[in-house]
Specification:
The protein has about 160 residues and is an alpha/beta fold. The chain has 2 domains: about 70 residues, 2,3-Dihydroxybiphenyl 1,2-Dioxygenase, domain 1, CATH 3.10.180.10; about 90 residues, 2,3-Dihydroxybiphenyl 1,2-Dioxygenase, domain 1, CATH 3.10.180. Helix content is about 35%, strand content about 25%. The chain has 6 helices and 7 strands. The chain has a 4-stranded mixed β-sheet with strand order 1-4-3-2, with helices on one face. Strand 3 and strand 4 form a beta hairpin. Helix 5 runs antiparallel to helix 6. The N and C termini lie far apart (about 50 Å).
Length: about 160
């Protein structure tokens, strides 16, 4: 059964560029359709005929839509895309690719903003287990370690979690 929700990412005029960028980073990704503005509605949308309107793409079977809607709206941290990773190496790969050209000031606790302003959370899946362990002392040590990081380094969080001091 296909997903019932398709996130739509609003760009000024970089929808195709961003979709191509994302589909080169993620292995199981593809662009499936590009729609263009026509003459109809020009008085409302103001886009030149033939300009990319939307790009439909998929990452890991999850559909996305990218819209060239103009500069009226900007991305913010109120919504982010999560990338739970099986290994630290996988997390490092996505962190390095998605943070390239992004806002370094927006990097904290595994969160980053890419060069288009989209917020991402990149983390090894093990992180959730460590920070939500029923043993409060262990989980609090893991949380404290995480809060001081930009990119998640699971080995350091694991060491804090297992620490007895």
């Amino acid at each position: 059964m296909p997903p019932k929700i398709t996130p739509c990412l609003w760009f000024d005029n970089q929808a195709e560029e961003a979709a191509k960028y994302y589909t080169t980073i993620f292995k199981d990704a593809k662009i499936s359709k590009i729609s263009r503005y026509g003459k109809a509605g020009h008085e409302i949308h103001g886009q030149a005929e033939g300009t990319v309107m939307t790009v439909e793409f998929e990452i890991g079977g999850q559909p996305f839509s990218a819209l060239n809607g103009g500069p009226m709206f900007q991305f913010n941290e109120a919504i982010s895309l999560q990338v739970p990773c099986d290994t630290q190496q996988e997390a490092d790969y996505y962190w390095d690719k998605l943070s390239e050209g992004g806002d370094e000031r927006a990097q904290q606790c595994g969160w980053l903003k890419d060069k288009y302003g989209v917020s991402w959370q990149i983390f090894p899946k093990e992180l959730n287990e460590l920070v939500s362990d029923p043993d409060s002392e262990k989980s609090q040590r893991a949380m404290q370690a995480m809060l001081h990081m930009k990119k998640i380094e699971i080995e350091k969080i694991r060491q804090a979690y297992e620490s007895t001091s």
